[in-house]
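Final report, Chapter 2: Outcomes

The project's central promise was a pipeline that accepts a single protein chain and returns its three-dimensional structure in a standardized token representation, suitable for archiving and comparison. That pipeline is now operational. To close this chapter, we reproduce one record exactly as it appears in the project archive, with the input sequence first and the structure output second.
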Amino acid sequence: MIYDILASKPHNPHYLRRYYNFILECKSEGRTEDHHICPKAKDLFPEYASFIDHPWNRKQLSVRQHYVAHMLLWKAYGGSQTYAFHLMHTGNSRQERKCTSSRMYAKVNEEVVSKLSEKLVGNKWNVGKPHSKERRERAAAGNRQKVSVDGEIFSSRQEVAERFGINRAVVCRRIGSPKFPTWVLLGRPGQKIN
């Protein structure tokens, strides 16, 4: 079925067969990346972009396998896949990679991930930084702030999260969002509301 979908667009048969066989044989371990077997590009298969609606279109590939898959897609289809592979191969304006092999790409990718991890420590999320007593008290007061959801009053954001089976960060994003006008914070942090 998947091969028939892939073959429905203009392609180089030799490289499409190699791509398809490569995807079937891939067994990845360690760090993986999601790959659309049928590329989601507008000129190919945008109708299969959603992994939720089309879980069969997702393949977990190692960084090296992902690189090889995009190289084969470029050779099979050209078009938008040329651009996708070029970005993977050379990088973008923020990080020039100039990779000549999948091994080099995997190594550079590991370095980029490592540098980003280092950069995030102590960043805006204050990971690893101690907070002042005043800051901890303000945060605790905010966490105890009452929330109204569809007219029902909850004693905290955590209670809302548990009631709806979502995490607290999602609750925080929904409060005040135009998409969720009935999700409202009641009062200011620390203010008592009956």
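Archive annotation: The chain has a mean pLDDT of 80.
This record, like all others produced under the grant, will remain available to the consortium after the project formally closes.
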